[in-house]
C-alpha cells in the first residue's frame, strides 16, 4: 500500500489466527473507513496453504501446478 490510497482497495481479506480477534477486525474496519471485511476463508488453512506453496518455491519445485493449487 506504499503508493496506494485506501479508497483504491477493493476487498480486505483476513487470514491468520489473530484476525479472529474482534479488536483487530474493528481496527482494520476503522482503518479502511468502514469497509466490510472478507472473513470467508479459513484463517488457518490459508496460512498453511501459503506456507506450503512458499516451501515448494524455496525448494526449487518447477512444477507449474503450484500456480493452480486451490484451497479446498
UniProtKB/TrEMBL annotation:
GO terms for molecular function: ATP binding; ATP-dependent protein folding chaperone. It comes from Caenorhabditis remanei. Belongs to the heat shock protein 70 family. One of its GO terms (biological process) is response to stress. InterPro entries: ATPase_NBD, Heat_shock_70_CS, Hsp_70_fam. Keywords: ATP-binding, Nucleotide-binding. Pfam families: HSP70. This is Uncharacterized protein.
